[in-house]
Amino acid sequence: MDLATFLIQCLNALQYGLLLFLVASGLTLIFGIMGVINLAHGSFYMIGAYMAYALAPIVGSTFGGGFFATLGVGVVLAVLLGYVLEWAFFSFLYQREHLQQVLMTYGLILVFEELRSLLLGDDVHGVKPPDILAGTLPLGEMMTYPVYRLFISGVCLLLALGMYLVFTRTRLGMMIRAGSANREMVQSLGIDIKFLYRVVFAAGVAVAVVAGMVAAPVASVYPGMGNTVLIICFVVVVIGGIGSIRGALLASLVIGVVDTFGTVLLPQAAGVLVYVLMALILLWKPDGLFKAG
Amino acid sequence: MTLFRTTLVAAAIAGGAASPALAQTAPKLKVGLMLPATGTFAALGTAIEQGFRLYVAEQGGKLAGREIEFVKVDDESDPSKATDNVNKLIKRDNVDVLVGTVHSGVAMAMAKVAKETGTLLIVPNAGADAVTGPMCAPNIFRSSFSNWQPGYAMGEVMAKKGYKRVVTITWKYAAGDESVRGFKEAFEKGGGTVAKELSLPFPNVEFQALLTEIAAAKPDAVYTFFAGGGAVKFVKDYAAAGLKKSIPLYGAGFLTDGTLEAQGADADGLFTTLHYADSLGLPRDNAFRLAYAKSYKLQPDVYAVQGYDAAQMLATGLGAVKGDLSKKAEFAAAVEKARIDSPRGAFTISKSHNPVQDIYLRQVTGKENKLVGVASKSLADPGRGCRS
């Protein structure tokens, strides 16, 4: 591997790592901070991708908007969806055992997949990136790099920074962190913890949906796409340390590097390298890289 | 009279054989359709079933005088449930014939049970080489293709085009490995070398690192096997990485089948090999496409053809044994001798029971896989490991 190729691979690794963080960030909120084992996270991501595909023509004809208008409508719908889901299902789960959380969120996967199949069919779809981001940059002598991938990395960095600041520097963040540590105590201090959690959950769903919408042009849109990202998302949250946004970002980047160079240098073992990494990190730090609190 | 008839029916059932004169009283032939009705491959399962039913309907609902009754099981493309599902059809529903399926892992489990129980099995899609290789049996047939076939045909095409150094890229799983192996065999026979065999774990779709490897290796061309969502993403990423204009991309037909709408302009001009193409122009194909479109209000695809031909193969064998499936050797001999008049072009069945068929070279133009020519005439899978 010459230097130019090596540098391009580093860029690939960084970009993939950031994409992973974007996809896993919603899970960081719901599983990491609220403590609900949410297997339906992949479904939220899938819903986002299908929204990017199916809403675009509708939004285009009503508001005359393009990709970013669709994104805006998607966020509103996602917050609503998250709010309703929390009210109807998840609010009953916080005090329950993990097994019940697993069962219910697994049930949601089946429901969402079937709904997707009924409403939008089982075909594979492509989503066009917005025109201003559709170009490519030259890279090395024969490759080009899609501008849209750089845009994704930018979105991801902004999201990471925003989440980090909200949770560590604001009063809202403090209340949420306190709520995850001791629910009753926070409630007795006069904070409406139920409402607070509903908002955080809605935010978690919205972030997952946005991730799906933003990733749709590079990931393409297909049945079962949520299940393919679900496991890697849990790996990100667990390696990073449950509840830590900093940890999740670092874990995503490390996984990006291991996966990229693993695929190139050790193709036979590429499928297991990430899990070996997880095992090693958990042996070294059983609580993940950064344990919250 | 009533008593007389009842006795005859009873005799026919007990004997398991119906003479042509008693065709009306022959028991129904139970066909067990084990196909995906849910999940990623649901659309493929539907196409196969519709193709199969179309042929049966064209024969008046009867094959060799026996009325056809369908029993259906959704295999969910889940290999872990496959053995249970097959056994349900064989033991609970007592089917005479098994037809299935799309997913190779599930088909392998079906072949295993069919081999043990001796139940007739016709595989209408799954391309795993082993089904007509080490797993082959007198009662196991395939109406589709082996993964080796399109790969081998493309190897011949690319060697003839004068490419010398080629890089292959696929998922690290049976279908991808088999396709690349077929390609490599023909390409190296034609004087080329495979410089690098790239792969990534199934069903990963993060291709960026491997695309960089391709750019660094600077081969004359790339051969690939991807299908479904992975095929869409690969074709788009390949174009976005700027490789499409400098390193031509070739693939097994699944790269551009059922995916063209999503791939858009990025797929334009790609060459692929498969045993079917859009606008073949054969009279048999035109008639089939018209009938299919009339019955189901949509255009058939390669999967519908494979389902249709599975029914044709069953009819051929049944006709030779006059509807008596217990004559397994005669059934197999008849199908092996037959010329199946398929919409894809007539084909015969090899000793290991895989179609000996023309593999077409197609090029993507305007959201269609247009026929360019025959890539490999009457190509037979070598049936390696088949001992029966």
Keywords:
heterodimer, A: 293 residues, mainly alpha, two-stranded antiparallel ribbon, 11 helices, 3% strand, B: 388 residues, alpha/beta, Rossmann fold, 12 helices, 22% strand
CATH fold-level topology of the largest domain in chain B: Rossmann fold
- In total, the number of domains of chain B comes to 2
Low-pLDDT residue intervals, each spanning 5 or more residues of chain B: 1-23
The overall pLDDT average of chain A reads: 89
Question: Low-confidence stretches of chain A at least 5 residues in length (pLDDT < 50)?
Answer: none
Along the chain, the helix and strand elements of chain B come as: HEHEEHEHEEHEHEHEHEHEHHHEEEE
Shape of chain B: globular
Overall strand count of chain B? 15
Compute the number of helices of chain A: 11
**Could you report the average pLDDT of chain B, rounded to the nearest whole number?**
90
- Largest beta sheet: strand ordering of chain A: 1-2
Order of helices and strands of chain A: HHHHEEHHHHHHH
Alpha-carbon distance between the two ends of chain B = 48 Å
What does this protein look like?
The complex is a heterodimer of chains A (293) and B (388). Chain A is an all-alpha fold and 293 residues long. Helix content of chain A is 74%, strand content 3%. In chain A, α1 runs antiparallel to α10. Chain A is globular, with a radius of gyration of 19 Å. Chain A starts with a helix and ends in a 9-residue tail after the last helix. The mean pLDDT of chain A is 89. Chain B is of the alpha/beta class and 388 residues long. Chain B folds into 2 domains: 190 residues, Rossmann fold (3-Layer(aba) Sandwich), CATH 3.40.50.2300; 127 residues, 3-Layer(aba) Sandwich (Rossmann fold). In chain B, strands 7, 8, 9, 10, 11, 12, 13, 14 and 15 form a 9-stranded mixed β-sheet that branches. In chain B, α6 links the parallel β7 and β8. In chain B, α2 packs across α11, α5 packs parallel to α6 and α11 crosses α12. The longest helix of chain B is centred in the C-terminal third of the chain and has 19 residues. The N terminus of chain B is likely disordered. Classes of the chains: A mainly alpha (293), B alpha/beta (388).
